Write a sequence for this structure.
């Protein structure tokens, strides 16, 4: 079973665009909040990544906007780790908390980059495998 994390969020007024729906760029921020919760589950959030000598830049982002998010809408955001051997691929799903209807889905891909060398690793570092052992 893949490693997952769920966060709950209510769409705030300041995230709306002139059409009175959540501006499309904020979905990426919501993904980031869910991804952070997922990484915290394995004690490999961004401070731990940096301390281990690796940065993990996002190299790919996909968002499928099925239905708009609206002001005061309560949401469930699920993040799921689906690949980790050579890269981190995390999928996301945003659902209405009341109806469980899927509103948005997407994914991100991150790769390990040595902080000292700035070179991309073609295999995930051992530290990630160690952090994942208890969950996979």
């Amino acid at each position: 079973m893949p490693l997952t994390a769920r966060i709950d969020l209510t769409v705030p007024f300041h995230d709306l665009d002139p059409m009175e729906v959540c501006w499309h760029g904020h979905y990426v921020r919501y993904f980031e909040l869910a991804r952070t919760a997922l990484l915290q589950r394995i004690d490999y959030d961004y401070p731990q990544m940096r301390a281990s000598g690796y940065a993990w830049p996002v190299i790919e982002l996909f968002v499928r906007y099925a239905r708009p998010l609206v002001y005061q809408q309560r949401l469930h955001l699920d993040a799921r780790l689906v690949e980790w051997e050579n890269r981190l691929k995390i999928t996301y799903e945003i659902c209405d908390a009341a109806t469980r209807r899927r509103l948005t889905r997407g994914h991100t891909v991150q790769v390990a980059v040595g902080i000292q060398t700035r070179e991309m690793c073609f295999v995930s570092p051992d530290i990630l495998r160690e952090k994942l052992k208890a969950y996979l």
